[in-house]
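I'll show an entry:

:::
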Amino acid sequence: MAAPEKIIRIDSLFAELFKKKQWDKRLGLHAVFLDWPQVVGPEIAERTEPQVIRGTVLWIAVSDSVWMQQLHLQKQALLEQINANVRGSEKISDIRFQIKAALGEEKVAVDSPPPVDFSPPADLEAQKSFELLIAAIGDVELQTRLLTLWRKAHR
């Protein structure tokens, strides 16, 4: 029977792999994703979202063109803020912006409650049947919105 090979701790294997692939440097760059609101402040974080780092270029999604223009004018200061919070020796070399309109809409959708329709249903039995059908959905907000949509369709 062959002698068993030496047992190696998995943490040392990961440490060696990270060093060999230079992932430790890349991991330091990606810390910006975890600390985004603290890095850029709450006002900017509400309208932006870091998307990806390609090489050393950070791509940031922005809610609209007005914010994109404003951030482009503050690009150098923003880059310094980000690099001050990057762990490790490698730093972000540039920032690119792209519009993602859904960023501005998320806040509005979460803050505003769904409209309540108090008009009587066209067919009470059909509505009860529909309510039983959507009861299997775990999301109460989705149930409410579906019921509102059903009522609009059956007026």
Q: What stands out?
A: The two ends are 81 Å apart (CA to CA). Residues 114-153 form one domain. The chain has ten helices and three strands. Strands lie at 48-54, 57-62, 94-99.
